[in-house]
Design brief:
The complex is a heterodimer of chains A (about 850) and B (about 170). With about 850 residues, chain A is α+β, with helices and mostly antiparallel strands. Chain A is about 25% helix and about 15% strand. Chain A folds into 3 domains: about 5-45; about 65-525, no CATH class; about 550-635 and about 750-800, no CATH class. In chain A, helix 6 (about 295-315) packs across helix 7 and helix 8 (about 400-420) crosses helix 10 (about 460-480). The chains are: A alpha+beta (about 850), B alpha+beta (about 170).
Chain lengths: ~850, ~170
């Protein structure tokens, strides 16, 4: 018999000793304090010896909290400063901080990740440490505010990294019970550095220009604060009415703005990939939450940012000082005393969707459509969930807030990570390995992902909370806190009206093929016929779902002042709208020499050459509120291309409006089978159009003898004696020797301007139009440009020409926008279906062009 | 236990202790993510990943790449003029910072595109930033992202409009 060395007693003893020594070391290491003590005082600062090196006295909260609600608005911060306990600021020679993320296998630090300035200027310099080695400056001085800004931002950042460490370790540590779950926060996150704003090689020149977040404590911004992802920077404003009032005096504002920055990070966790022996491959575009004006993505962003204030200070109210002094602060929980009566922590009293979308506790009788108002539903839900987890999960009270907010932040991070994935994978395998690239589970594919994630199928209350609830089920109910059951989770969501989905959409269906499910348990393998987990329908009480068939354009009703659509075509308004859009990051490219605001004649009709904003007035013919209505004028698969030389097409029959008799085509040739997204442009090499492409929304009527047909604008411009050349078309941009390869001749006459080609409506009350719903009887109600779609009209259009634009609408509490009624599994439509009509109600918006 | 075995045991224990110390010291070591990275990926890309036909390909200096459009050397000033036109009187300053050049396969066409950061300053000295992808032949803005998020006190901040009063009796 052969006795192996490893079987000898000596060897066994050696192994045992090794194990014991490692366990001992592990124990010792776990006792080793982290860099930051509970008071936020870092090791290295010798306060105990009476020295204040690298330290300062700071204000821990706003004057409203520290001095009382009646204090201010002009403030002397001397009274708010805690002179008893100094705090560590930074051990650097200038006012900068580091970002350190601890992983189960190590830590990664991005040095100098936060820079704190006073105000923006070309000659801005970081504040140097004082000669005495401290950061103690006179209260109310510019230096004092810069120091406080860094302190509070660093606190917020450290907390975020604590939460992210918790999430990462729970998801990826081999010892974690969650290690065997599919997850979105990527295992390779430490390698890409995308847990922060990360400029790659060469330093600070692209992706993010800077790998540091700049803070401007005394920004030149009137009664406002902002986060700019492109800089990236935080900017805290002032009030010219009150010379010693500043937003930076309110740490809850700092946490809220930082919350926006953290969302920008979480949305892009997956948008950089490691490469073998090479720098990571970063997607050149980035995901953002929200567009402009009102949309549900923006509301979710505000809700999460408000919640981050609660994470930091445990208070159920946000902005008591900086906003409250102007009657604009916000509650974050039903427990908050500023709510109207009836809002309470019972199932019936929750701040539910869609009822409270336009609720402002400061002006409860005046409904207002805004992202900050609508975001309160999300923030209140997150706080309620946090508190439920504290009681349901038997967390010791000393750790209750920290642990429960770690759970919720982990779910938020996982959800944003999946929503923002521009590589279109969404979720990695149970081992954390990147699935094969063909395994696309969200945002269609890597070519169209930006358009899908931001325009065609952006985050909404339904989409966000479906993924959030999936993660809640998977991680909290599944492992971290099994006593918080699916039933309880759904009941709480329903209390908020957020149980807007029928399944958890968790079966890994391909974005391209309904019959294909990716098996995350067995990387690389494909299955079929796997049904998604169903919502327990008994839990749906407040989350009312409505059929899209009950959505239409409003009929004219002069008694109620209801129009089918509203046109804004006066020069002053349109100039202001386009200027406003530009400043908010949406430049709209009006075609020079073919259309211009100068042609606008203010006759509230569509005239040649004009640039007009149009609010199609949608009508809700149901007995329940429709909410989160999104109206799209982007190109989609609704035509059969009959001639690849000209690109001319026949419209497909998608409803009973455009019929075969009117030149449309029905049958298999019109089945929407596009699995990728491609606009209807001529190929530069072949000089041919594709046989299948997404076409612009607006058709034009042409008369052929006794027959009238709806045709492509390209066909019309050559037929009706117009003979319009490319250069006379909308969207043609070339003046040089080569043609414009982004030019689409099928929108030569009328086109929705890119960037302004969709409209959002917060809600439409039952048996009312949108305009009636938001006006609520107030004739002075004002609308946001985000409620409109902007069209430009070719100046060469013959008067009398008729257009039919096939817009597509869906909404968040829609019962038949997200799955086929014939599908017994109730599985969601795959992303490819968003090329066609199925998830939408087609809205036929018709108009004549007249002088 | 023989002398040889005792030495063996001692060596193994020492390896264990030093190995553990090394392991944990490595864990606690602060690794700096700077402009160049030295640590390897824990997850080598799959074969499919390596061979992925990405829609974007960065143009590096001296590299020959195929694209169908013909960049106009004056694209940046054309873009600036366009932005100034749209910004009108309220706009005080436009700053365009070039970040990267790509070939972007868009709608099946390989286009050369320029990625820029645009900073706008209005008459009140307020600033906003966003990123944009530009066709340098036409100076068209093909995509924008990373916009500024404002959190104003005034909920009606920004331009808002009333419906035309004629709608109360017409249409």
């Amino acid at each position: 018999m052969i006795v192996r060395q490893w079987m000898t007693k000596t060897f066994k003893m050696a192994c045992a000793s090794l194990l014991v020594s490692q366990l001992l070391l592990l124990f010792l290491m776990s006792c080793n304090p982290t860099e930051i003590t509970s008071s936020g005082q870092r090791a290295g600062a010798s306060y105990a010896n009476g020295e204040l090196s690298n330290m300062a006295f700071i204000y821990r909260d706003s004057p409203y909290i520290l001095e009382g609600p009646n204090y201010g608005p002009n403030a002397d911060m001397k009274g708010s400063v805690d002179f008893n306990i100094p705090e560590f600021i930074t051990n650097k020679s200038t006012l900068k901080g580091d970002c350190t993320l601890e992983f189960f296998s190590g830590s990664v630090t991005i040095q100098d990740c936060i820079h704190s300035f006073d105000s923006k200027s070309p000659s801005q310099q970081l504040l140097p440490r004082k000669a005495d080695g401290t950061w103690i400056f006179a209260p109310n001085s510019s230096e004092f505010y810069q120091v406080n800004a860094l302190f509070h931002i660093q606190q917020g950042v450290n907390t975020f990294f604590d939460k992210l460490s918790f999430a990462y370790n729970e998801l990826h540590s081999p010892l974690s019970p969650l290690a065997l779950k599919a997850k979105s926060i990527p295992k390779y996150l430490p390698n890409t550095g995308l847990f922060w704003f990360q400029a790659i090689t060469p330093a600070n020149d692209y992706y993010f220009r800077n790998s540091f977040l700049s803070s401007y404590a005394l920004c030149n911004l009137e009664k406002n604060a902002r986060f700019s992802a492109a800089a990236p920077e935080l900017c805290f404003g002032k009030s010219s009415e009150h010379q010693s009032f500043f937003f930076i005096q309110d740490p809850s504002i700092v946490y809220h703005e930082l919350g926006h920055a953290l969302i920008a990070i979480m949305m892009n966790f997956r948008n950089g990939r490691p490469q073998t022996l090479a720098p990571p491959l970063f997607h050149p575009l980035r995901s953002n939450l929200g567009s402009y004006g009102y949309d549900e993505a923006g509301a979710l962003g505000e809700g999460v940012a408000d919640y981050y204030s609660f994470v930091m200070n445990k208070r159920t109210h946000f902005g008591e000082w900086a906003l409250g002094k102007f009657n604009a602060s916000r509650p974050i929980s039903e427990e908050d005393p500023t709510h109207i009566s009836g809002v309470e922590t019972t199932s019936e009293g929750r701040l539910s969707y869609p009822q409270f979308l336009m609720y402002d506790s400061n002006e409860p009788t005046v409904p207002f459509e805004g992202v900050h108002q609508a975001g309160q539903i999300a923030s209140h839900y997150f706080v309620a969930l946090t508190k439920s987890l504290q009681t349901e999960c038997s967390i010791p009270s000393a750790q209750a807030h920290d642990t429960s907010t770690s759970y919720v932040m982990m779910l938020i991070a996982e959800t944003f990570s999946e929503l923002g994935d521009l590589n279109a994978i969404g979720v990695d395998t149970v081992t954390g390995a990147i699935p094969p690239t063909s395994h696309r589970q969200n945002n269609l594919d890597e070519n169209a992902s930006f358009t899908w994630a931001h325009v065609v199928n952006p985050p909404t209350y339904r989409k966000f909370f479906q993924i959030f609830a999936k993660n809640l089920n998977r991680y909290v109910t599944g492992k971290l806190c099994p006593t918080f059951s699916q039933d309880e989770s759904e009941k709480l969501l329903d209390d908020y009206g957020l149980l807007l989905f029928k399944t958890y959409n968790d079966n890994g269906t391909s974005t391209k093929n309904k019959m294909v499910q990716f098996n995350v348990n067995n990387p690389g393998s494909i299955t079929s016929g796997v049904a998604p987990k169903l919502v327990l329908e008994n839990n749906r009480r407040k989350s009312v779902l409505v059929s899209k068939e009950l959505l239409s354009l409003a009929a004219v009703d002069t008694e109620k002042d209801v129009a089918t659509y509203y046109i804004i075509d006066d020069q002053q308004s349109m100039s202001a709208i386009t200027q406003e859009l530009l400043f908010k990051g949406i430049p709209v490219s009006i075609t020079k020499n073919v259309a211009s605001i100068e042609y606008n004649n203010s006759n509230i009709k569509v005239s040649p050459g004009e640039v007009v904003a149009i609010i199609p007035n949608l009508y809700n013919n149901s007995n329940s509120t429709m909410a989160g209505v999104h109206l799209l004028a982007t190109d989609w698969d609704h035509v059969h291309i009959t001639d690849t030389a000209t690109g001319n097409f026949k419209p497909c029959v998608v409803d009973n409006v455009t019929t075969v008799a009117q030149g449309a085509e029905d049958g298999l040739s019109c089945a929407s089978t596009m699995t990728s997204y491609k606009r209807h442009l001529k190929n530069a090499t072949t000089q041919l159009f594709s046989a299948e492409a997404a076409a612009p929304v607006c058709l034009v009527q042409v008369e052929d003898g006794d027959v009238t047909r709806w045709v492509s604008q390209n066909e019309f411009r050559k037929k009706q004696g117009l003979a319009l050349q490319d250069k006379d078309c909308l969207g043609y941009g070339s003046s040089g020797a080569t043609e414009d390869f982004t030019f689409n001749p099928h929108e030569c006459l009328v086109r929705a301007l890119p960037g302004a080609s969709s409209a959002y409506y917060s809600k439409i009350e039952p048996q009312k139009s949108y305009v009636e719903s938001v006006r609520a009887g107030n004739p002075d109600h004002t609308f946001s440009p985000s409620n409109s779609i902007i069209f430009e009209i070719n100046k060469w259009i013959p008067p009398g020409t008729k257009f039919r634009c096939r817009l597509r609408a869906k909404f968040s509490n829609c019962t038949d926008c997200f799955q086929d009624s014939a599908d017994t599994t109730k599985d969601d439509y795959i992303d490819a279906e968003y090329n066609g009509p199925k998830p939408f109600k087609v809205i036929n918006f018709e108009f004549d062009v007249n002088d | 236990m023989t002398k040889k075995n005792r030495y063996g045991l001692l060596i193994i224990i020492m390896i264990g202790i030093f190995g553990s110390l090394y392991w944990f010291s490595d864990s606690k070591e602060t690794k700096l993510l700077q402009s160049t990275r030295s640590h390897k990926s824990p997850l080598p890309p799959t074969q499919e990943e390596s061979g992925r036909d990405m829609p974007f390909k960065e143009i590096k200096k001296g590299e020959k790449v195929f694209f169908v459009n013909r960049p106009d050397p004056k694209w940046k000033s054309s873009l600036e003029n366009f932005l100034k036109d749209q910004g009108g009187e309220m706009l005080e300053d436009v700053k365009i910072e070039h970040e990267r050049s790509f070939v972007w396969t868009r709608d099946g066409q390989p286009l050369r595109v320029e990625s820029v950061v645009i900073t706008l300053t209005d008459k009140r000295k307020s600033q906003s930033h966003f990123r944009a992808m530009i066709d340098p032949q036409t100076s068209k803005i093909l995509e924008t992202w990373d916009r500024t998020i404002f959190d104003p006190v005034e909920k009606k901040e920004g331009f808002r409009f009333k419906l035309d009063p004629r709608y109360s009796t017409t249409n």
